[in-house]
Every structure is written in structure tokens, then in C-alpha cells.
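B., you asked whether I could sanity-check this one before it goes into the benchmark set. Here's the sequence:
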Amino acid sequence: MLVILAACSATAYSIDGIAYSSNEFFLLTHVSTGTLIIQIIIYLLIIWILLGLLGFTIRRLHDTDHTGWWYWISVIPFGYLFLLYFMVLPTVEKPVRWGSYLFKEKK
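And here's what the prediction gave me:
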């Protein structure tokens, strides 16, 4: 989805004919209102998608009985590999620290 939004962003700039200019001042001053509106919509969609992915990642970390603060390990170089490892771990089949929303106790 993010790739599609990036392609739409590049297309919006190329419609104005400014995507191939090497003059930065020209790029800043010759953007049409339509392109700015399209860019704002695209940026809002990207933020919406990234917040959804953040929620999914934290929920998945909770499923594996890790705290959501482990998400910040992705900030350090190659930390995303540890985060990926946590994401592919199997779900803990017991109540976790954040509630028993996964498995209900059978009576």
C-alpha cells in the first residue's frame, strides 16, 4: 500500500512537470494547489497506515508475551531483525501480562 501511495506522490509531481527539474528553488515555488492537496492526502494516508501497523506490531508483541516497548529496538541498526524474530514467534497459549483476551479458561 505504501508503494502505491509513493507512486501516486511521484505521479502528482510529474503531472506538474517539475519532477525532472534540478533547481530546488523551482521545485519549491512551482507546485500547483492540486498537487499540494494530493500530497497532503497521501501523507495523511501514510500516517494512518503506519499507526495501524504500530498497533498491529504491539498487539503481536503482546501475543508473544513481550512488552510493546520492544518496538523501539527497530530504531537501532539491525534491530528490526530482533523485532522480526519476536513477530514470528508462536503465540503464547496462556494468559499474558496484558490480559487473557487470547485464550479463555475452560470450565
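One thing to flag: The helical segments are 2-15, 24-29, 33-63, 79-88. Otherwise nothing jumped out at me.
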